[in-house]
Amino acid sequence: MEDYRDTKNSMFELNSFDYAGFWIRLGARLIDSIIVYILFMALAELVPWLSQGETLTEMMYFSAVNLLVGILYYAGLEGSSMQASIGKQVFKLKVIDKTGKQLSMPKALLRSVTKEIGIMFLVGGLMVGFTDKKRGLHDMVANTFVIRGR
């Protein structure tokens, strides 16, 4: 696990990072959305009732499982030693906690859940363009940061 602490100073400095802004994170999100769609469609092939959407109940199951696939995708990758989803890896971005370290799995799950909820309301992602250290609502809730990799 790579540590992003400032080695020159004994105190960890959050100001020493190059934070990833709105547009680069949107690009990563688009790549990830395609991957999550492919994962969900593969799952729907294995579980045929997921691809049926004739009744309201079936459409609700479809949406819930699709949301769950996205949440697990982001939490699993961003909480791993890669510290990034595949889209973030393409742009050499990493997700870190307030100490500059890899996210714990519970923190990655919290970030992922709040990100998916924030995207639904178009709040979380838009905040990145207007906040200090380019943080979305999900970053503030989980106390995380997205940085350009070193």
Keywords for this entry:
single chain; 150 residues; mainly alpha; two-stranded antiparallel ribbon; 6 helices; 2 strands; elongated; disordered N terminus
Taken as a percent bin, the fraction of beta residues is: 5-15%
Shape: elongated
Helix content: 40-55%
Distance between the termini: 13 Å
Q: Calculate the mean pLDDT score and round it.
A: 85
Order of helices and strands: HHHEHHHE
Q: Give start-end ranges of low-pLDDT stretches.
A: 1-11
Radius of gyration from CA coordinates? 17 Å
Sheet with the most strands, sense and barrel status: 2 strands, antiparallel
The tally of structural domains comes to: 1
Placed side by side, the strands forming the largest sheet appear as 1-2
Number of strands: 2
**Count of runs of 4 or more consecutive helical residues:** 6
Q: Class by helix and strand content?
A: mainly alpha
